[in-house]
Specification:
Helices cover 60% and strands 0% of the residues. By secondary structure, it is mostly helical.
Length: 139
């Protein structure tokens, strides 16, 4: 079976990121849902957005949940970006550790800020994907 094109991989990852973002938004509205579940889907959405951007450039990425690593692979790490890199990196802890450990000193998740962050990352990723896709002409 032939290897999928980078644009196909990016499109699948972007769709999956949108699903995680939608789930996160729905869960964030319900105070009975644990922060860990919301943080998990937020982390997954950001992770998949970053991987989509990396894939759209034809670059490989490790199958990791480490947002700091993925930001570096996406070329982010210094400069001004339309989202808070530090808050994005903080989501890494929701990938695995907070789902399997009871951390008594874990800070409550700022749901409103997390939803806003995921939306900002998603918008940035969509802009990057549009910029990296070849222009189509209707002629």
């Amino acid at each position: 079976m032939p290897e999928p094109e980078p644009s196909e991989i990016a499109a699948v990852l972007a769709r999956k990121a949108a699903v995680d973002a939608k789930v996160m938004r729905k869960l964030a509205e319900d105070e009975e849902i644990a922060d860990e579940a919301i943080g998990f889907h937020a982390q997954q959405a950001v992770e998949k957005c970053l991987k989509a951007v990396i894939a759209s450039r034809g670059e490989d990425f490790a199958y990791t949940h480490d947002i700091r690593y993925l930001l570096g692979r996406a070329g982010l790490g210094s400069g001004v970006y339309p989202f808070d890199l530090g808050r994005a990196v903080d989501l890494t802890e929701y990938a695995v550790p907070l789902r399997y450990e009871d951390l008594l000193d874990a800070e409550p998740l700022d749901r409103e800020a997390t939803v806003a962050l995921v939306e900002e990352v998603g918008q940035w990723a969509n802009d990057e994907l549009r910029a990296s896709s070849p222009s189509r002409s209707d002629s």
